[in-house]
Amino acid sequence: MAKFNSQISMLFIVVAMVCAFVPVYSVDDNEAKSSWDTCLVKISPKCALDIIAVVFGNATITDSCCHDLVQEGKVCHDTLIKYIADRPALIARESQYLKKSDDLWAHCVTISKSA
Hints:
Elements: H1 2-28, H2 30-39, H3 45-56, H4 63-72, H5 74-85, H6 94-114
Helix pairs in contact: 1-3, 2-5, 3-4, 3-6, 4-6, 5-6
InterPro entries: Prolamin-like
Keywords: Signal
Pfam families: Prolamin_like (PF05617)
């Protein structure tokens, strides 16, 4: 039960950080805003949160969200994760997040090919 509470707490922290940082910066950066507008229409909000929880926390992802992620495309995935990881509160662990992002992508490609 403690592990579940810890995962839920991490998810809320990640969601709060994304909500706090992303909208502020995306308005000022037209290219990033365009990426958000273009890429996020390809993926459900639940899957987007799951992907963020995997990369910036210790969550797992469902096969259906993997399919959505692969449909989103590698460029969109990389751009959005890099954009979030560049925030001042996260930059110290950016390389760790980018590795987790690449690992997630490879996992999802494998899942999508086997379906």
